[in-house]
Amino acid sequence: xxxxxxxxxxxxxxxxxxxxxxxxxxxxxxxxxxxxxxxxxxxxxxxxxxxxxxxxxxxxxxxxxxxxxxxxxxxxxxxxxxxxxxxxxxxxxxxxxxxxxxxxxxxxxxxxxxxxxxxxxxxxxxxxxxxxxxxxxxxxxxxxxxxxxxxxxxxxxxxxxxxxxxxxxxxxxxxxxxxxxxxxxxxxxxxxxxxxxxxxxxxxxxxxxxxxxxxxxxxxxxxxxxxxxxxxxxxxxxxxxxxxxxxxxxxxxxxxxxxxxxxxxxxxxxxxxxxxxxxxxxxxxxxxxxxxxxxxxxxxxxxxxxxxxxxxxxxxxxxxxxxxxxxxxxxxxxxxxxxxxxxxxxxxxxxxxxxxxxxxxxxxx
Length: 365
What we know:
Blueprint: E1 2-6, H1 11-22, E2 26-33, H2 51-64, E3 68-72, H3 74-90, H4 97-116, E4 121-123, E5 128-133, E6 136-141, H5 158-161, E7 164-165, H6 174-183, H7 205-213, E8 218-221, E9 227-231, E10 258-263, E11 268-272, E12 278-284, E13 286-289, E14 298-304, E15 312-319, E16 322-327, E17 331-332, E18 339-344, E19 347-353, E20 356-359
Parallel strand pairs: 1-2, 1-4, 2-3, 4-7, 8-11
Antiparallel strand pairs: 5-6, 8-9, 10-11, 12-16, 12-17, 12-20, 13-19, 14-15, 14-18, 15-16, 18-19
Helix pairs in contact: 1-2, 1-6, 3-4
Organism: Microbacterium laevaniformans
Domain tRNA-specific 2-thiouridylase MnmA-like central: 208-272
Subcellular location: Cytoplasm
């Protein structure tokens, strides 16, 4: 096969490209330039789209003896990921930019161009397993549970899975990948993993949003509607947040309070006790299926609401274009904008963006 290997500049994508070449595929490496500031420098292990990353990817491709290119996807990344991120926070939602990047950039824009150029598949260093089942290709969890990335790949559809290649999915541990990179003479063998949001390299999401959205002082209220503090912009808060609230009125029981709801229209943040974060139901209309759609409108599954959350047993209902999930035990705080990924054992069924949550402890107002 002709394989286009997406090379981020990290060890995983470099070893994935190497394995694709070892398997006898015709491999071409490509690094995606996603930043509008071409000279952006890396800060520690934050980010994955800096000038150093592009140089690391080129060196890895040279070592592997494969052609290498840098493609400028910065405009598409700005429109589909960064602008979406800002708009979601403005609307009082908590988005996952990695999900949007996979959905809109790596497995949409990149894959579309790859197919146009005659490639058969896009190869990445994600930890997930593809299985060719009787009803088409399936997406499964990786062998290494600690590195499993099937959650952030839950946005992939059947046509995208048909042209995707994940060489690392069955590798038992990341340590083995690093050891292999060292044996191959790849300089990225011990490079730290990237983390946090790549376009906010200093990790200060609230400060970054304040620059983009501006500040607008508003009230922090409790579940009864009493004002207990103030804030500089509701967009800087998310459901489940405890730190940085700066409440002027302590809780009567002396216990910490958490963000329960963000109301962008009134620029109000609602806080309350931890037990009030319990969520009995979530639903959303923006959904997709990773392969075949569920055979029944109602089915049992396991649901994961964050990249590193434990999957929870739940019942799901698909009705009039909306997916509704009710966990057997309430979720511990879910914010609109989060992504819920549905599993059948290790297989990813699909995903939806949470539009509505129902608290197990009703909130006044």
